[in-house]
Structure formats: structure tokens, C-alpha cells
Amino acid sequence: MSVHYTLNLRVFWPLVTGLCTALVCLYHVLRGSGGARAEPADGVDGGFPLLKVAVLLLLSYVLLRCRHAVRQRFLPGSPRLEGHAAFSSRHFREPGLSILLESYYEHEVRLSPHVLGHSKAHVSRIVGELVRAGRARGSPGLIPGGALALAFRGDFIQVGSAYEQHKIRRPDSFDVLVPLRLPPLVALEPRSLGEEPALAPAFRGCFLCALKAPPSPSGASGGHWLRDCKPFADAFCVDVRGRRHLSATLVLRWFQSHLQRSLATVRYSLEGRCRVTLTPGGLEQPPTLHILPCRTDYGCCRLSMAVRLIPAVHLGDGVFLVAPPPPPLPSAPLLELPEGLRAEALWGVNTARQEQKLLSWLQERAAPGACYLKCLQLLKALRDLGARGLDSAAATQWGRILSSYVLKTVLLAVLLRKGAPGQGWDEEHLGKCLEELVQFLRDCLLRRHTLFHCVLGPGGAAAEVGPLPKALREAAPVDLLAAFDGHARELAAARLLSTWQRLPQLLRAYGGPRYLARCPPPRSQRTQGFLEGDP
Fold it and tell me: Where is the Mab-21-like HhH/H2TH-like domain positioned along the sequence (predicted)?
């Protein structure tokens, strides 16, 4: 994907002013050290021209900031000009919204491509060394016959918004899949739980992985296979309905301990570049690798980063089963699992490769200058603005419902319904495109539309992303919002509408430079429209 660089005036003008001031000071120091030999003729002040240039640059910077402040405070649709009129979706077609969105995007949302590139390269180097060390260590246990137990495959796969060009704000968190290598004596038979009767909706996207004997030309009997793989089954499997299944919990526990041993191997070699620590995630979260800048590191991108290392089992065609599965909601406790199922045997599915192919497919067919990824970034920023003022529990529920994956699926669903981003997705229609995404998301929350997983859904995007493993082709459609009850969805839809209606005021209050005057809406407007319908 193409990357566009823009000049950041907040950095450029202070930098130029500081450099000119430093030149003036350096000139006066050199002039003073020159003594009588450097004495100018009477009436001539050699430092005046440089000083005048520095003052003019400083005045230019102040004038630009004043112009930006005036534009922020007196845009069309501003409360100062329209008497605090109630906001409706029609205001988003006015030219003033585009200026507000652009300003907020530049100051609060957009990531520097330079910093993001350095961060991704740094993460790739550190994780690469750690994974190679883990592969070299192998596994402490052996299966009879000389076949290794679980081990690192030796590569890693970078997934998530940072690698799909729609991450916002700071490049300080990343997701990395670490594929695992199964022993040659073991093959897996994955199965989706989507058709499982009496299963809570929160678990319909999970998978089970039964063990089976790999195809063998020698025709070895099943009894010999069970006896040979018994050490592996005892260490990494649980019984589900009378059959051995690979346990996500046991694999995650082994993965975390193996990572700790591998980190101890490479920690000394990393000391000169950064400080690295590993935080275990327990049985509900994958471990997190914290990369802290070294005190002697004088690089331009000294950021502290958190990298989630997710153990993954390859199913084929770029699809992975990951441990642990997405955490269940409080409304769907593990006690709701049908009889015979065990929570430690549940796996999640990761289709990041297919989603990246789908985004590339859309980009190839998009009109020049299409802003659909920018709309997705602004939709995430809108979600974050809507979380302001909520208590901890409500903010957590809001973030669960409007997760980044849900918002990305909303964008893909809207674009796939149209075939590709056309002329209506250019920069001139940024506000209108964002409005379309918000409206579709609200309809999904109110059950007017169903938000299916973009790969597991009916029809999905299989033709665009290429072949899929049999387990995914036969999987039932997964509704990403089915796990939330109607009341929670209605509250989220109302909050989304309220945030949308107050967006100009929120952008003025929280966007732009921190020293600009704020223009919050009056108290009456802050509560207006929370449960209103469409205008």
C-alpha cells in the first residue's frame, strides 16, 4: 500500500526557528572570540540580518498558529455561528466537517510512517531472534522413535492493524503469531462448533482439534499409533467425548515456559539495544513481550512497545488456530458449555492472511485516492471519543462490542456490498463515507443487518481470498455481535448515535494542538439525542 508523507508544521516551524536562533548565537560567539580582528566597521552590525530573519520566522510561525486557531473556532457549523443548534447527520455534508476531520486526523489519529516503519522493523528483529532461539532449543520432551514433541516452526507472522495500514495514534502494540510444529506422528482433525446444539453464541466461532493418525503408506495399525503418540497426548491433550483433543490451555502453558527459556538465551545479546521482559498472560491471554528502549539508545524512535506473542497451529492455506480463544463474555460463562465439552479444548481461528489478501484485492480495484482506510481509522477514533465519560465497566463493555475487529469487518462488509471502493470514497466525501459506516454499524447493533465474519460468513469473501481449509469451508456462519444481548446492543447503538451527533463539538474539544482554546458544547447538548432515532 502506498504511503503518503505530509509536512508536519507543528514540528517544522519550531525547528527552523530554533536552528536560526542557534546560528545567531553561534555567530555572536564567534564574533566575540575573534577580538579586534573581527570588529566590523563603525555603524555596521553584522548580526542584525540574521537576527531579523530569526524574528521574521518566529512571527510567521505565530501567525500560522493564530490562523489555525481562528479556523478551528469559527468553522461553518460552529456553536459560535449557529447558536448551538442541535446537530444532525446533515451537518456532515457541510465543508466545515472535512476541515475538522482532517485536523483531528493529522493531530490525533495519523501515525508517522517513519516511526511506524522503525517500530515494525525493531519488533521484527527482536521477535526473530527470540523465535530462532526457541527453535534451536527444541522441546525438552521426546516421543519414542525420536520424533520431537511440540516445537517452534522457526518463523513468525505479523498480524493486526499495524501491518494493514490502519493503526491509529501510537505504534506501541503489536500482535505476532508464532507457528508451532507438531510431531510427525500426529495429525489434526479440526471441527467448528458453529452447529453445536445448545452452545452459547460466544463460543460459535471456536474450534476443536481432535488427534488422528497421519496417512501412512506402511499401513501401521491404530494400536501402534496410539501407543507411540501417548507421551504427546498425555502432555498436550484432553479427553472430549471419548476422544483425545489438542488442548489450547496445555499448549499455551508450554508455550509460555518455552518462551521464558528462549528469552534467557538471547537476553544478554539484546542488552546493548533494548531491555526485554516477558509477562505471562495466564490461561486467558497470550504472553506479552515488553521492549523498552535502552538508556544508551539515541535512536529517533525511542518507544516502549508491547508485543503479544500468540501460539498458532497451521491448518493450511494461511489459516491458523490460536490459543487461547477469544475470552468469553460475562453473560456467557464457561458453565454454559454443553455436556462433554471442555473449555481447555477450545481454540480460536485467525484469518489475518485472508483479510490482508482481501484488503489488497480491494485496493487493486479502488479508485485513485480512495480514503476507506482513513475512514476506518476515524471510525476507531470515534469509538474512543464515545468511551470518554464512561465508568470502567461501561467503557470495557463499549470496547468489547465495538472492537477493532468488528469495526474492520464493518468496513469490509460495506465495501464488499459495493464490489470495490468507487468514486464516492475519495477525500472530498470523507464525512459522507464515515456516516455510511456509522449507519451500517448502528443497523447491525439494532439487528437490522447481521455482521458476519468476513471469511466464515455465508458466501463471505472466499472467491477473493483464495482457497480455504475444509474446516472453514464447512463452518457455520459466525455473527460477530450475537454474543451480546439485546439491551447491551441497544445501549451501544444509542451511545454511537449520541457520539455521532456530537462529533463536531468533540472534535473541537479534543482535536488539534493542546494549547488551542476549547469549544465544548453546552450542557443541554451533551445529553440531547442519546436515544433519538434517525433525523
Answer: 372-452
